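Continuing from the previous page...

OK, I double-checked the sequence for Prephenate dehydrogenase against my notes and this is the correct one:
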Amino acid sequence: MDVLIVGAGSMGTWFGGAVDAPVSFADLEPDAAAAAADAVGGDVAALEGGTTYDVVCLAVPMTHVADAIGEQAGRAEQAVIDVSGVMAPAVEAMARHAPDLERMSLHPLFAPERAPGSIAVVRDRSGPVTDALLAALESRGNAVFETTAAEHDEAMESVQAAAHAAVLSFALAAESVPPGFETPIYEGLRRLVERVTGGTPRVYADIQATFDGADAVADAAAAVAAADADDLESLYRAATTGWQERRDDERHDTRGDTE
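Thanks. Re-ran it with the corrected sequence; updated structure tokens here:
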């Protein structure tokens, strides 16, 4: 089984090193494809070529995945998959452009440098090739769990869009403080800010463009800022109750923790 990976960024490079198969990289930037190939011992392929592969994997920004599938699905002989991070548009595009092939959407819920981790998967049309790819990922210590495209994309509104908006808003709003004034909560937020701002800006921009969630954070912050003492107590109790209910729901979910 050979694999063409379209997109030679960090996620495409991670996937190339995580699967037990010969891989080739194609990218708008030939130097990026060459660097990814060097990193995992793969080859470089033309972005627009007639060579076909057993598997075509789209590792492109989520805002471009549907178009990329349309352009590249014809190069796949057995399976088309993606690791873009948004599932509904990817699954729909794969079904439209590769109706007779195996199809699978993957979302590694971690930065590549923090692998292994939890991977959400939608097996839209499974078979031996996609089964083998999943087995390879699991053999490297990743925890794979199945979901639906709708469930995944709804979850990302909180897991990514709202969470990132909250952390970035704190980073923009907070002032520097003299040494010694830090509290455990402030320290925790500062660590989150350092982690988020150490990433790639375009990735975070694409998440906000793709998933709702930031508006809800803004509305909640406005409600807190406008509240008097009694209102704030009510908001605090509502947050406590709502969060406890969410934690209870998560404890009953047997999928395990995700990042």
